Amino acid sequence: MANIFVEKLSLANPYACGHVLKRGVPSRLPMDTAWWRRPSTLPLVILSMALLIIVAGGAIRINDAGESCPDWPKCFGTYGFDVSPDEQEQYWDENPDEIDSRGEFHRYTVFEIFLEWVHRLLVAIIAVPIVANIFIAKKKKDIYGQSNYHSSIFIATLLLIQATAGATTVYFDNADWTVALHLSLACIFSVSIIWQFLLMKVKEGARWGFLSTSKHFIDNNKKRFDAIAGSVLFLLILGAWVSSTAGGQYNQSCSVGFPNGWPKCNGSVVPSLEEPGVLIQMIHRIGALVIGLILIASILKVKKDNQDSPESEVYVKFLFYTGGLWVLNLMIGASYLIFAKSGDFPEWISLLHLVGGVSCFFMSLVCTFMIRLSLLSNNINLVEE
Questions:
Q1: Which residue in 340, 346, 330, 338 sits closest to 239, CA to CA?
Q2: Is 40 within 8 Å of 200 (Cβ atoms)?
Q3: Mean pLDDT per 10-residue section of the chain, whose length is 385 residues
Q4: Which site from 29, 107, 186, 243 is most exposed, i.e. has the minimal number of CB atoms within 10 Å?
Q5: Which pLDDT does position 11 carry in this prediction?
């Protein structure tokens, strides 16, 4: 995905090398400029808000508040969150077609409505720095190049798509596929922002050691690192599917406690897959195991094939970090079932499991980003020479 942001670097492209002369003055931003004054700081602000939105979305899910605002963009016909039970009843009477999966007699608490309301508010607020990002990227084309301007537009487009996906989630009463789609787009959105930030830092003259990665190492490992990141993202989406299918009731399909709930399922290592909930649970568990095996095999392979290459050390280090987060999140997911009681799950652990999964995904992207930034830097150096 990151390839779409990498502009073609050639002598015909005056922005390629980042040293474009404009009236005799280098166009590269001075590195002694205060960090908070650099345009590259803005993507970090956007990223911080995006991660907050993801966590808020997780809080909505674990508090079972995904349907607490039946309409969009309003909430029970208002733009506020303090909606009393009587006001909710009045709204159902006036809008029977909006009654959600819980029926017309269910009443949401103010806190549940507030969570959904805050989530939507954050999405609206994040639009401000995103619009500013477009204008700054256009104004600073002589420093950051055309690709940075295109990436800012791409990020803004993703926000619109994500908002549409959120509305779709409300319309389909938090159907499992809409929740998985919503989380997937949130991850892609965050990754796009991270890529823009890193690309801007390179154009500002960052001198990271990995930027000199050899072409031989890149050719041998690029696809492997991409596969790891893609696999972790798939597992993350699978987790969203498990937690949202059947209103989250499939979380308890494998029973609870140790060892019957985990590592076993209903007291069996190979449980019956006749129930759809058990099938989904086992797909998620097997997927987690496969990802772990892929990480272990990748670490061993990179170390073996690049024993004489000192540049491989930094890549192996981040693969270890990814593996460590994977193990930690596996333990968090297991504890969710081990410490649960029938019908009573520690949902704060579920939120922690989501945060751990997102963190593992971002860490798995580090090697992929380093490879692509190194390719970009090598092209820049060729042009400058």
A1: 330
A2: yes
A3: 40 35 43 73 92 87 81 88 91 83 82 92 93 94 89 94 85 78 88 92 84 85 90 85 65 82 88 81 88 88 76 87 93 90 77 90 93 78 43
A4: 107
A5: 29
Angle at 3 between CA 31 and CA 287, to 5 degrees: 115
In the chain the first and final C-alpha atoms are separated, in Å, by: 29
What was the pLDDT predicted at 130? 95
Q: Which residues contact 52 (CB under 8 A, 6 or more apart)?
A: 122
What is the C-alpha to C-alpha distance for residues 4 and 6, in angstroms, rounded to an integer? Answer: 6
The reply to whether omega before 129 is within 30° of 0 (cis) is no
Distance CA 10, CA 379 (A): 8
Asked whether 315 and 367 are in contact (CB, 8 A), the reply is yes
For 148, the enclosing helix (H) or strand (E) is helix 141-171
In this predicted structure, what is the pLDDT of residue 12?
A: 33
Q: Residue 105: CB partners within 8 Å, gap ≥ 6?
A: none
Place of tokens 């060892």: 259
Report how far apart, in Å, the C-alpha atoms of 100 and of each of 67, 68, 119, 356 are.
Answer: 7, 9, 19, 31
Handedness of CA 96, 102, 105, 108 (dihedral sign): negative
**H helix or E strand, kind and range, residue 374:** helix 347-384
The whole-angstrom separation of Cα 84 and Cα 317 is: 53
pLDDT on residue 384: 43
